[in-house]
Amino acid sequence: MKQPIRNIAILAHVDAGKTTLSERILFAAGEIHRPGRVEDGLATMDYMPEEKERGITIESGVAHFEWKNTWFNFIDTPGHVDFGAEVDMALTAVEGAVLVVSAASGVETQTVASFRKLHESRVRTILFVNKLDNPDYSLDETLINIEETLGVRPVLMSVPQFKNGKMCGMLDVLSQSRLVHSESGAEVLDDDWESDASAAEDRALLKKYYAEAVEFASNFDDEILSLALDNKPVPPKMLLRGLKALATSDDYVICYAGSALEGFGVRSLVTALSFFLPEVPTFDENELGQVVRLRHFRGIGEISLFRSHVDLLRRDWPAGFEFSRLKANMLLPVDEIRSGDIYAMRSPFETELGQVIRLDADGNVLEERRETRDERDVRHPEERSDEGTSVVNYSIGERYLPLLQTRVECVRTEDYAHVERSLSVLARMDPSFRVQKDDGGFWYLHTVGEVQLDVLLARLKREFGCEVRAGSPEVRWQERLCRAVGPAENTFQIGPHKMSISISASPLEGDAHDIRLSAEFMENAPREILAGVRSALLESTEVGVLGKGPLVGVRFEVHRFEWTEGALPPMIKKCCADAVAKLVKPADVQLYEPVMELSLECPVNFAGLVTGDIQAREGKVKEIEGDGKTHFLKADVPLRKIFGYATGVRSISKGTALYSMKLLGYRPATV
């Protein structure tokens, strides 16, 4: 019988202890001899220098381990909001997840966002309440916070045990047993616990939680319900069956508790991963697999993080393909690949994120290039919103609006081609990072935030050996049309080749772009001309009119487009770009600036200083709460006023404040 496979991700708010828990899971499974500490820069899965320096996860690390005859592929995802696209891509490769909630802070902004992502992706989730080694943090209050904030009822399956204010063991609800540390630090069953007369109170507590689990599971299993109504005992195997059904519900969530730092509660959690998370699905037999991430290693080049859809021995691998296990930044060769399993793949051609690699009847790879949005629109005209109209669809990367733009140029002119290739690779690896080439010989890097920008510049130098000069990051505003404009005419000619266009534009609600082409143009133009015009017009919106950000919410109407045979694509781009420049003038647009929602908590003695600083940054405080010890607030702050906030708030609060930000929206600029 084939060994079962579980693909799981681990998610959390920043500083909830997610990577520390990952280390403890690998230690419990015997993959590492001792768990590395994040604060010491020794975490196994945070292998990048930028991760070690900052103490955060940037790239989704991958590890593999066995537990109870089940094979696990384990993905540790970033918690920082700048790397949300990494989380989205990781979720395309898993069926289950662990969501970590810190008992110190409760459910936080990114906790809610992660839970929502998991729910939308239909990824089955287990909660782990962390940081309970501090007796001042309440498990009961955290469970109430989870139910009130996430809207699900947590079913607690492990309970921490304390002695003299220090965590000394874990009580496992399903097995009705106690786990303690061995001399090596691993969790083991306490064989003497059943005969310990002083443990009567703990056994009573376990029975209480077991009865609660029976009550919840009875909603999903008639046999359990029947036994419960007759006050008869429900055996653990039957309860497990009921809890497996409960785990598929949107109203309940299986929950474990403990301390990743101290290594308590991890063994019960790992066992639960094989119990409650689904197996990998069945795939199309004509598919080799799917690319779920891209990586680049200096001296090795590009590799794909790849989920196999077939079982193949090495001798049957398609020509030019190599598969390995990826362990942090190490590649370990394998002799076979299994359906549902995750590998590092090297291929004879360039792959794309999300690409499914298909096989022909003889087992050979059908190399496929993914279509651009414009090519797909031409090939599927029936998917336009109406006749002659193309509406832009958004991929994972396009869910993350670039809020910053930074000008970058080469230190040495002769390095231009190498820098351009390297930026292209980085943009392919991170779907939320975009590069805009300027005709002046430099580039604009569009990033979600400052941390992402810093990391990209560091990787550009370390992994690709590129020496560049980067300007100061600027807020990427939005430009919007104030009125309908046009039509405008433009003609462009090189030698015998000539193009001319007549175009107008009008405002559109929202951030989408519409491109309407005349019926005559649609009927007579070949596919490459249609795609070229759409691509050129969309590209012109990225530059904007004032150079402050993209032109959004605009409908272009092409009344006429004429061309001579043999015209090259760059001519289309130039003709359309010049037409848009003639069409839309600075007086026709209004600037909108991004506004962030800031969520912050700090000790009450710093509340006045922190609040005053936010108001000095033109922030509008809209919520203030507190529990006598900790001050909580939410405020709307213009992004232009919150650059370098991490340093400022750390200085004001002496390093005690925790905060997160998310884009609230755009408002008309007042500066």
Describe the structure using short key phrases.
671 residues; alpha+beta; Rossmann fold; Elongation Factor Tu (Ef-tu), domain 3; Alpha-Beta Plaits; seven-stranded mixed beta sheet; 17 helices; 36 strands
Task: Explain what you see.
- The chain is of the alpha+beta class.
- It has 5 domains: 5-190 and 251-276, P-loop containing nucleotide triphosphate hydrolases (Rossmann fold); 287-366, Translation factors (Elongation Factor Tu (Ef-tu), domain 3), CATH 2.40.30.10; 404-475, 2-Layer Sandwich (Alpha-Beta Plaits), CATH 3.30.70.870; 479-584, Ribosomal Protein S5, domain 2 (2-Layer Sandwich); 591-668, Alpha-Beta Plaits (2-Layer Sandwich), CATH 3.30.70.240.
- The chain has 17 helices and 36 strands.
- Helix 6 crosses helix 8 (236-246) and helix 14 crosses helix 15 (569-583).
- The radius of gyration is 28 Å and the shape is globular.
- Residues 38-43, 54-58 and 369-394 have low confidence and may be disordered.
Secondary-structure topology with pairs:
Blueprint: E1 5-12, H1 18-28, H2 49-54, E2 61-67, E3 70-76, H3 84-91, E4 96-102, H4 109-120, E5 124-130, H5 139-150, E6 153-156, E7 158-163, E8 166-172, E9 177-181, E10 187-189, H6 200-217, H7 222-229, H8 236-246, E11 252-257, H9 266-276, E12 287-297, E13 301-308, E14 312-313, E15 322-327, E16 330-333, E17 336-337, E18 342-346, E19 356-359, E20 365-366, H10 373-379, E21 389-391, E22 404-410, H11 416-429, E23 434-437, E24 443-447, H12 450-462, E25 468-470, E26 474-475, E27 478-481, E28 485-494, E29 497-507, E30 513-517, H13 519-524, H14 527-543, E31 551-552, E32 554-563, H15 569-583, E33 589-603, H16 607-616, E34 620-626, E35 630-638, H17 645-652, E36 658-668
